[in-house]
Each structure stands twice: as structure tokens, then as C-alpha cells.
Amino acid sequence: MAKDKKKGFFSWLGFGRKDEKETQQQEAEQQKIDAAKANELQQQDNEAAIKAAEDEAERQYQEKQAQEQAAIKAAEEEAERLHQAQQAELKAAQEEAERQRQAELAAEKAAQEQAERDRQAAEAARVAEEAERQRQAELAAAKAAAEQAERDRQAAEAARVAEEEAERQRQAAEQAELEAQEIVALRDEVLSEQTEEEEPKQVEQEKPKKEGFFSRLKKGLLKTRQNLGSGFLGLFTGKKIDDDLFDELEEQLLIADVGVETTRKIIDNLTAHASRKDLKNAEALYGRLREEMSDILAGADKPLVIEDKKPYVILMVGVNGVGKTTTIGKLARQYQSEGKSVMLAAGDTFRAAAVEQLQVWGERNQIPVVAQHTGADPASVIFDAIQSAQAKGVDVLIADTAGRLQNKAHLMEELKKIVRVMKKLDEEAPHEIMLTLDASTGQNAVSQAKLFNDAVGLTGITLTKLDGTAKGGVIFSIADQFGIPIRYIGIGEGIEDLRPFKADDFIEALFAREE
């Protein structure tokens, strides 16, 4: 409509003829373009229709193919199912046949096994019967052998007991004879002393000077010194410090009865010094050995101090034959010489000679002795002695006891009873429990010390008979293992040969070189 108006307007003005023609051409071209577009759209629609038809045909084809494939698959699956069913039936039939076969085999095997068991049971019964017959025969033989062995043992035991009894009687007779001789000698000495006092004094003649204790100690330790102390010089002179030297030293210590534990301790200490290069040569090792042995004894160097107790009670214990009663007499004389009043208790009531021996010592030194009849209760004797000593204000009471074998339990129990009885009168008594040991018994003295110490708790030790024995090294073992003070040592028969133990003097005498 706008175009018509515009056309009319331009025509009124006389313009636009040319424009109208152009417009018509443009319109014609536009129409062509539009027609081309319409054709193109129609063609696209046709192509879309064809494509749709083709897609539909393809879909129908695919659907048909799927249906055919499904039908084929279903047919195949049905065929497979039928095949599987047939196979299952066949397998079931085979399994049933196999089961029946296995059942038949099992039945056959069970029958065979039962037959074997029956055979074995019969064989076992036969073997058991045979074994029982054999066992009964062996039992009878063993019983006969045991009875014979027991008869032999009883015969041997009877012979041993008879031999021991004969030996005991011989030793008892020998001991009794020795004690009788000692008693006679003591009595003779008492009479001699009394006679000398009654005789008028004669012109004094110059008497030879008595040998000092150190000289006697040095002589008394002669045999021990050959194995220990200066006896080591031969080992060390001109030697180098090596394993061979230590082996020789160890052997020498053991020979001298120093004991395995103490010897090991000494060797270990010396080896430690040698490994640190503290020792330049064998002479230095010898000096170090002396120090080690001195250190061991130093711990036992604790002299007995008689405290201000009235009475100060000393209980003497030990086995037979160690010189216990003689030690009591010597101690009594020494305390008396120090101005102390002394009393003795004859607690060894098993041997009449022991009581008499103690009484002779008392008579010799004008020392009272409390005693009862042979076989009396030792605890009762010592109880009476303490009461008497308390009443008389005695300074020192020394109580003897029966020589006890350290392996006799009932005798050790009796010793404990004596201690208990003492404490009824004085809770602190005994103030000293002194064990007398014989140095010549070597390591047996160590076992005695252990058992007596376990039984009553020792507070001191007297080591006798150091003279004349090569086993004096046991003093080191005793000092090292127990730490019990060694109160006295004995190196001879004289009263002056029992002296308080001094470690320095002992080591000096032991290591003294021959002049």
C-alpha cells in the first residue's frame, strides 16, 4: 500500500518512471529468489521426507533383524537348555553309578579293614600276652636282683657300720688316751709350778731370751709360706706377665687351700691390673699379689674387745679334735693375766675327759669351773655358770660345748637351745660366739664355718694349728667368704702361741724372705 501511495505521488510529480521500471525488475528478481528459495525449501522437504522414509525403512529393517536374531537366540537357548538338561541327566546317571561304585568299594574296604583290625587285635592280644609273660619274668628277675642287691647293700652297710664303729672306738680310745696324757701333763705342770713356788729361790742364772711371737709366727707359717707368700718368688723371678704365669699362680693358690672362689677373685683382680698396664713386670705383679691378699685379711682383722659386761660370755663351738678345750684354757690364762676374773663352764657333758681336762686347766690357773655329771644337759650347766658368774661379779665366762659334727642336725639344734637358755638370764648373751677351726683341715674348715654360722650366727673365729700345715691358705678363703672376724690364731702348743690375729703381721710373716 505504501508503495502504491509512493508511486502515485511520484507520478503526480512526473518522476519515477525509471524508478518504477527498476522496481519492477527488482520485484521480478525478488520473485525469482523467492521462487528459488521455495524450490530449495521444497527440495529440503522432499529430502527430509526421503530421509524419513529411509530411516523408517531402516528402523523396520533393524526391528525385523532384531526379531529374527531374538528368534534365533531363543531357538539356540532352547536348544542349549535341552542340551544342558540332557547333560545333567547324563551326569546325574554317571554320579549315581559312581556313588554306587564308591559305596561298593567302601563296603569292600571296610570289610578288609575290619578283617585287618580283627587280625591286629588278635596279634596284639598275642603280643600283649607274650609281653606280660616277659614282664612278669623280668619283674621276678628284677625283684630277685633287687632283693639280692638289698642283701648285699645291707651286708655292706653292716660292714661299713661295723668298720665305722670300730674306727670310732679306735679314735675314741686314741682321743681318750691323748686327753688322759694331756690331763696328766697338765697336772704334772700344775705340780711343777707349785713345787717351784715352794722351793727356795736359787741364784738366778741368765736364761736364754724367749723368741718373739713374730719369729714364732714366721716359723709356724713355714710350710704355708712354701706354697704362698715368699714361696711365690720362684714363680715370678725372671718371668714375664702372661697367661702361663697366671695359670701357675692359680694352681699354687689352690694347692695352698685358698679356695676356688677366693683364688678366682685374686686372679681376676690381678688380670685387671695387668690389662690396664698398671704392672710393668713380674716383680710388680708379686707386690700387687701381696696387696690383694693383705686386703682380704684386713676385713677380718677385728680383735675381740672384752666389753664392760659382767659376765662377758664367750660361747665356744666347733667339731671334735680342733683344739677347742685347749684354746679355752689358753684364753682363760691370757684374760687372767690382763687382770680379769675368769670362770669356765664345762658344757661338753658327753665326754668325761673333756670336763676333767677343763677342770685341770682351771686348777692350773686357779680359775673356777662349773661342771655337772657326764650326760647332764649342757644348757643347764651353762645356765648355772651364768648365774654363778653374775652372783660373783666375774668379768669373763667362757663356756665349752660338745664337739659337734656339722652335719648332725640334732646337735646343731641343741646348740641353738643353749643360746636360747643364755638369753633368759642375759638378753645380750652370748656376747661372743667363737668357732674354733683346725687350719690343717683345709677347705673342710670353710664348710664348718658356713654351717655353724647358719646355725647360730658366729661373731668370731679362732684358727688353730697353723704351724705344721701347708694348708694355711684357708685363712684367706674364710676371711673372704664370711667376713667373720678372725680373733685368734694358734701356731704352737704354748699359751703364748695363741695370739690375737693381726693381718699385717700375718702377711709380713707369710711374705718374709728367707735370710
Automatic annotation (TrEMBL):
<keyword id="KW-0342">GTP-binding</keyword>
<dbReference type="Pfam" id="PF00448">
    <property type="entry name" value="SRP54"/>
</dbReference>
<dbReference type="InterPro" id="IPR004390">
    <property type="entry name" value="SR_rcpt_FtsY"/>
</dbReference>
<keyword id="KW-0675">Receptor</keyword>
<feature type="binding site">
    <location>
        <begin position="318"/>
        <end position="325"/>
    </location>
    <ligand>
        <name>GTP</name>
    </ligand>
</feature>
<protein>
    <recommendedName>
        <fullName>Signal recognition particle receptor FtsY</fullName>
        <ecNumber>3.6.5.4</ecNumber>
    </recommendedName>
</protein>
<feature type="binding site">
    <location>
        <begin position="400"/>
        <end position="404"/>
    </location>
    <ligand>
        <name>GTP</name>
    </ligand>
</feature>
<feature type="compositionally biased region" description="Basic and acidic residues">
    <location>
        <begin position="16"/>
        <end position="37"/>
    </location>
</feature>
<dbReference type="InterPro" id="IPR027417">
    <property type="entry name" value="P-loop_NTPase"/>
</dbReference>
<feature type="region of interest" description="Disordered">
    <location>
        <begin position="1"/>
        <end position="177"/>
    </location>
</feature>
<comment type="subunit">
    <text>Part of the signal recognition particle protein translocation system, which is composed of SRP and FtsY. SRP is a ribonucleoprotein composed of Ffh and a 4.5S RNA molecule.</text>
</comment>
<feature type="compositionally biased region" description="Basic and acidic residues">
    <location>
        <begin position="52"/>
        <end position="66"/>
    </location>
</feature>
<dbReference type="InterPro" id="IPR042101">
    <property type="entry name" value="SRP54_N_sf"/>
</dbReference>
<keyword id="KW-0472">Membrane</keyword>
<dbReference type="GO" id="GO:0005047">
    <property type="term" value="F:signal recognition particle binding"/>
</dbReference>
<feature type="compositionally biased region" description="Basic and acidic residues">
    <location>
        <begin position="74"/>
        <end position="83"/>
    </location>
</feature>
<feature type="compositionally biased region" description="Basic and acidic residues">
    <location>
        <begin position="148"/>
        <end position="171"/>
    </location>
</feature>
<dbReference type="InterPro" id="IPR036225">
    <property type="entry name" value="SRP/SRP_N"/>
</dbReference>
<dbReference type="GO" id="GO:0005525">
    <property type="term" value="F:GTP binding"/>
</dbReference>
<dbReference type="GO" id="GO:0006614">
    <property type="term" value="P:SRP-dependent cotranslational protein targeting to membrane"/>
</dbReference>
<keyword id="KW-0378">Hydrolase</keyword>
<feature type="compositionally biased region" description="Basic and acidic residues">
    <location>
        <begin position="92"/>
        <end position="136"/>
    </location>
</feature>
<keyword id="KW-1003">Cell membrane</keyword>
<dbReference type="InterPro" id="IPR003593">
    <property type="entry name" value="AAA+_ATPase"/>
</dbReference>
<feature type="compositionally biased region" description="Low complexity">
    <location>
        <begin position="137"/>
        <end position="147"/>
    </location>
</feature>
<comment type="similarity">
    <text>Belongs to the GTP-binding SRP family. FtsY subfamily.</text>
</comment>
<dbReference type="GO" id="GO:0005886">
    <property type="term" value="C:plasma membrane"/>
</dbReference>
<dbReference type="InterPro" id="IPR000897">
    <property type="entry name" value="SRP54_GTPase_dom"/>
</dbReference>
<comment type="function">
    <text>Involved in targeting and insertion of nascent membrane proteins into the cytoplasmic membrane. Acts as a receptor for the complex formed by the signal recognition particle (SRP) and the ribosome-nascent chain (RNC). Interaction with SRP-RNC leads to the transfer of the RNC complex to the Sec translocase for insertion into the membrane, the hydrolysis of GTP by both Ffh and FtsY, and the dissociation of the SRP-FtsY complex into the individual components.</text>
</comment>
<dbReference type="GO" id="GO:0003924">
    <property type="term" value="F:GTPase activity"/>
</dbReference>
<dbReference type="InterPro" id="IPR013822">
    <property type="entry name" value="Signal_recog_particl_SRP54_hlx"/>
</dbReference>
<dbReference type="Pfam" id="PF02881">
    <property type="entry name" value="SRP54_N"/>
</dbReference>
<feature type="binding site">
    <location>
        <begin position="464"/>
        <end position="467"/>
    </location>
    <ligand>
        <name>GTP</name>
    </ligand>
</feature>
<keyword id="KW-0547">Nucleotide-binding</keyword>
<keyword id="KW-0963">Cytoplasm</keyword>
<feature type="domain" description="SRP54-type proteins GTP-binding">
    <location>
        <begin position="485"/>
        <end position="498"/>
    </location>
</feature>
<dbReference type="GO" id="GO:0005737">
    <property type="term" value="C:cytoplasm"/>
</dbReference>
